[in-house]
Amino acid sequence: MLPVVALVGRPNVGKSTLFNAMTRSRDALVADMPGVTRDRHYGVCRTGERPFVVVDTGGLSGVEEGLDALTAQQVRLAIEEAQVLVFVLDARDGVLPQDRAILDDLRRSGKPIIAAVNKTDGLDLQNALAEFATFGLSSTLPLSAAHNRGTDDLVRHVLPLLAEDAHEELAPEDAGAIRVAIVGRPNAGKSTLINRLLGEERLIVSSVAGTTRDPIRVPLERDGRRYVLIDTAGVRRKARVEEAVEKFSVIKTLQSIAAAQVVVVMIDARENLADQDLHLIGHAVDEGRALVIAVNKWDGMDQYQREQCERALERRLQFVDWAKNVFISALHGSGLRELMRAIVRAHDAANREIGSSELTRTLERAYEGYQPPLVRGHAPKLRFAHPGGSNPPTIVIHGSRTKHIAPAYRRYLENFFRKRFKLEGTPVRIEFRDGENPYAGKKNVLTEGQQRKRQRMIREMKKRKR
Fold it and tell me: What's the pLDDT tens digit per position in 394-404?
């Protein structure tokens, strides 16, 4: 496995900015306010001679209650698994009592510590570092993470401290794994679901809505299949989103939907199916992602409440009646086996390879069973079909007058193909292509014999009219 380096420090000292600079990404959410990062965020730094894992952690505020206590617990877990600790400091704030308290905790771990003094742009480096020399650390480095200055020097100091026998390159976590995005409204139970699947408190869970802000990617292996679970921030109605951080969190969630292969939309069974849930489902369908509806908090509901919930789902989710509804309890773990089976079926259906001959035969049966309405007295002809891509399955149909085919007939073909090939849990896209007319723009020029024959026919027709 790759060695692990943890970034630790007070809130708003630039840990997430440094994480993005070291991993050459924008995965970590960055804002000029404390407490943006809460969960552990993993990435791989490949800028040096050897790659290693970088862990972005939440800021240690010194408050041991509420979300701050949960964030501190995540930081301690990152310290335990790391081989090297990078203590990120703010050059403009100087040394604060909280910095000394954090350093004492880091020293108790007995692991190598590197002091990274951030935000040194525009300052005299010697004066900026002089105050932090009182820490007595062997390595105190200046850097400006926002401008990517000093990060290469930091990597050079980190590499000698890593174990030599743990530098082999790992395959990307997405290789061969099913990427599953867990989305929904705030407090629907997304983080609880992932923790339950992992069997550990990997993500912060709180009754406070909006606890998760960054999309967190977590690898999982279950029943011989590999997954990458993407925990996303809850999405509220646009009118209620006021903070800039929440706006960026929503953007990250929508990007996670586009990057996933299967989208699990979590719905709170104890609340009515909201329009925001439908918007998220519609966005997943527009992106062409395989879809599973997870109805959470099913435990504790009586029979009447369950029947009312099922009827509401059936009535309002008719436009995605091909998606599987799974009733679960993320807190107690009920229904999770069926949920994972639905995810696998949706993924396999979205990536199924179908031959052109099978598609053409199915198209012929569909055409014989129900022909499209006439267009100016002529019926559109559908000649043959072939695959046009996967995830979602795309079927390209060639014929004539296909531009005039009604949307209802397109839906008929989608349902026919879905039923024939058992494409459960994935949208099916139909693309029509008109064949070119080889005689378009050409004029038939008559020969002399054809012209004489035409004249004789005209004379005969005139005689008969008389």
Answer: 999 998 888 88
Cβ neighbour number for residue 277 with a 10 Å cutoff: 23
Is 51 marked as binding a ligand?
no
Q: Is 247 labelled a binding residue?
A: no
The reply to whether 153 sits in an annotated binding site is no
Is 253 one of the annotated binding-site residues?
no
> Is 16 assigned a ligand-binding role in the annotation?
yes
Is residue 322 a known part of a binding site? no
CA distances from 165 to 1, 3, 160, 161, 168 (A): 9, 9, 12, 12, 8
Q: DSSP character for 135?
A: G
Confirm whether residue 13 is marked as ligand binding.
yes
pLDDT tens digits, one per residue of 155-188: 998 888 887 654 444 445 566 789 999 988 888 8
User: Is 118 flagged in the annotation as binding?
Assistant: yes
Last-in-domain residue among 104, 128, 161: 161
Q: Does 119 lie in the same domain as 93?
A: yes
Q: CATH code at 229? A: 3.40.50.300
Is 120 one of the annotated binding-site residues? yes
Annotated binding-site residue? 175: no
Beta strands in 193-323 (DSSP E): 216-222, 225-231, 262-268, 290-296
Is the confidence at residue 226, as pLDDT, over 60?
yes
344 or 466, which is more confident: 344
Q: What is the pLDDT of residue 167?
A: 45
Instruction: Name which of 88, 59, 87 is nearest 74 in CA terms.
Output: 59
The enclosing domain of 411 has a CATH number of 3.30.300.20
Residue 269 and residue 396 in one domain: no
**How many domains are contained in the chain?**
3
To the question of whether residue 59 is assigned a binding role by annotation, the answer is: yes
Establish whether 249 is an annotated binding residue: no
Q: Is residue 443 part of a domain?
A: no
* Termini Cα distance of the chain: 100
128 is in an annotated binding site: no
